[in-house]
Design goal:
binds zinc ion; alpha/beta; 7 helices; 205 residues; 11% strand; 6 strands; six-stranded parallel sheet
């Protein structure tokens, strides 16, 4: 999985990787998922932390109640495309626009009227074309600064170590609440949420 190039190295991409303040933003990708998303939401609720969820259109259509719950509990929404096509950045602008518009429409319908204000390219595979299409649909492209690679299912201890060692003031942190067995991510959050809360202000973007 390729990380987005730093914005400073390629300003044309205009991918946001930090919060712009000292606050840290947790982001959860690929859901909603009926098994893992409620567990993540429960932990966020326990520690009174707001986060940002990057939703797959197909998942939002299949699990609208979870989208509503995400919004109801104060989290913000991000468009993560219809089917997580990691090659979408190279498709025509028309095809990208259709995918993003369909995803946003499904999220808005499921959430009860809240449209996502952020867009995250699957795999962090950005192109100037895909960020331009997102901007034309009033979505800011959202990257990340901290990546524990939890989608590879490392042990929880490694997820914890990576996040604790690499998070700084302003970091956007990437994790996953779907797309496979997320038991290690959920286990890591039990330690990470109190740690992060003790060291940073945490915000939903
Ligand atoms: Zn993803």
């Amino acid at each position: 999985m390729v990380s987005a190039a730093p914005t400073a190295a390629n300003p044309a991409l205009r991918v946001r990787r930090t919060t712009g303040t000292a606050a840290v933003a947790l982001t959860f990708d690929d859901g909603p998922d009926p098994r893992w998303t409620p567990q993540v939401l429960g932990l966020l609720r326990k520690y009174q932390i707001k986060a940002t969820f990057c939703l797959i259109g197909g998942q939002a259509r299949a699990h609208p109640a979870l989208v509503k719950q995400i919004v109801r509990e104060g989290h913000s929404l991000c468009n993560h495309t219809m089917r997580h096509d990691e090659h979408l950045k190279n498709k025509s602008a028309q095809r990208i626009a259709a995918d993003l518009a369909q995803t946003s429409a499904l999220i808005k319908s499921a959430s009860g009227g809240i449209a996502p204000r952020f867009f995250r390219a699957p795999g962090g595979n950005w192109s100037t074309r895909i960020t331009a299409v997102a901007a034309s649909q009033h979505m800011q492209s959202l990257g990340w600064a901290v990546d524990p690679q939890d989608w590879r299912r490392p042990p929880a201890a490694r997820i914890i170590t990576t996040v604790e060692r690499t998070t700084r003031a302003g970091s956007v942190v990437l994790m996953h609440d779907a797309g496979g067995n997320r038991a290690q991510t959920v286990a890591a959050l039990r330690t990470l949420l109190p740690y992060l809360k003790a060291h940073y202000r945490l915000v939903a973007l």
